[in-house]
Amino acid sequence: GAGVSQSxxxxxxxxxxxxxxxxxxxxxHTALYWYRQRLGQGLEFLIxxxxxxxxxxxxxxxxxxxxxxxxxxxSTLTIQRTQQEDSAVxxxxxxxxxxxxxxxxxxGSWLTVV
Amino acid sequence: KNQVEQSPQSLIILEGKNCTLQCNxxxxxxxxLRWYKQDTGRGPVSLTIMTFSENTKSNGRYxxxxxxxxxxxxxxxxxxxLSDSASYICVVTLFSGGYNKLIFGAGTRLAVHx
Lengths: 114, 114
Known about the structure:
The complex is a heterodimer of chains A (114) and B (114). Chain A is an all-beta fold. Helices cover 0% and strands 46% of the residues of chain A. Chain A has no helices and 10 strands. Chain A has strands spanning 5-7, 10-13, 19-24, 31-37, 43-50, 65-69, 75-79, 88-95, 104-105, 109-113. In chain A, strands 2, 4, 5, 8, 9 and 10 form a 6-stranded mixed beta sheet that branches. Chain A starts with a strand and ends with a strand. Chain B has strands at 4-7, 10-14, 19-25, 30-38, 45-51, 56-59, 62-67, 72-77, 86-96, 99-104, 108-113. In chain B, the strands form 2 sheets. In chain B, strands 2, 4, 5, 9, 10 and 11 form a 6-stranded mixed beta sheet that branches. The N and C termini of chain B lie far apart (41 Å). The chains are: A mainly beta (114), B mainly beta (114). The A-B interface holds A 4, 31, 33, 35, 41-45, 48, 50, 53, 56, 91, 93, 99-100, 102-108 and B 31-32, 34, 36, 42-46, 49, 51, 89, 93, 95, 97-102, 104-107.
C-alpha cells in the first residue's frame, strides 16, 4: 500500500477484555515499530521488529502486552485483560532496513478502555 | 541515561513570524537525529533526518541544524502558516545491541495564530 495502515482506527472496549490491533507496514519495509502515546504525552516505545531477527521487546509495559509479526508483513499488537490506563493511541511505524531511512508512521489505533 | 529534551514545551506565534525549537540530547552512541511534525490526532510525519556529519538540512520552510559536539539541534520555521500548528518531535536514533533504538523527545506544541 501507499502508507502504513492500522486497524481499527478506533476501539472502545470494556475493562478486562482482550484487544488486537493490526498494522500493515509499507511493502518492502523490514523494520516495524509499535509505540504508545497517551493523550498529550510523548511516544513510548513498545516493540521493534527487524527482519528475521529476534524482536526488541524491551518497551512492553507488562506481560499483558504482546506482539507478533508474520515475516516482513503484518504485525498484531495484543493487549490482554485491558485496564483503563491502557487507553491511548497505538502507533505503528515501518522503515527500510538501513539505519538512516525515513520511518513512516500510521495514523494510529485509538483505544479507549471503559 | 539516553534522553532527548525539547524546549519550549509550548509556543504561540503570529502567522508570518519565524520561530526556533530546540532539542538537546544525551544519547550515545548517536546515529542520527530526526524531526517529526505531528498534527493533532494524526501520526507523526518526517521532516528531516541528519547524521552526525550534517550541520543543516532544509525541507521547505523548515530548517534543522545539528551540533554533534554540543549535542544540540534546532528546528527553524520561517514565515509560519496556520497549518504549522502541531507538535514537533525530536527523535534521536542510537544503534545498540543490534537494534535501532529511537529516543523520542516529549515534543514542542506550536500554535500559530492569525
